[in-house]
């Protein structure tokens, strides 16, 4: 028997009238944690300490039989699906089967928005297995605007796109902040501001992270990511493996002095032996969001 979560969506990859997007209607979610199977038992037991969780959407897109697991998580916490396989910068439309999978996961999660990355993970015929930066041109911008419109129309909710870390950037005619300005102005979509990525990029490419923040359309920032990385051969790597560095906490406080941030997620994919250090960082993020003046 089909439940309300499994209702069929509209036809995919068919452009229609642009859906009005109201980021202000997204509720305050608070401070949460990236859901990882290794932490499942601890996360279930910490319901008073974690406001919401972020799940890896592609797991459920590629394995629809696991949607019952997603429903169980949703029954414990508010859930935000976070994708890695959209590859919105790839030439051509979003594959219909992938877009249909996004819709299923989005509906089952009951989330107020769906997030992925402003990047490429594929080129025709090749999976890069990497979040690669875009060559930010007028043609690429127009292509992405069309795909964002299609996705938001299909999901019936905002798409929120994440800033990525990069070791090599192209000499693009449009800067990343200007690209986000024009994309959000045309589509109404949101931004997932990965503050660790901003900090790592600023260190590796020698720019001021605060100046970068000032140039973004901060009124479209819905959520942030926080994580800790490591140094390798003189390069700061966003490894999702260590505590959030103090410089990133300072960026979070500065951001929260400027906007009413709706959601913060701590990401950690390695060194998962204990939940307690992660919860302490979730608490710290919540404290900064509530009172950034004394952070």
UniProtKB/TrEMBL annotation:
InterPro entries: MbnB/TglH/ChrH, Xyl_isomerase-like_sf
Top-rank taxon: Bacteria
Protein's recorded name: DUF692 domain-containing protein
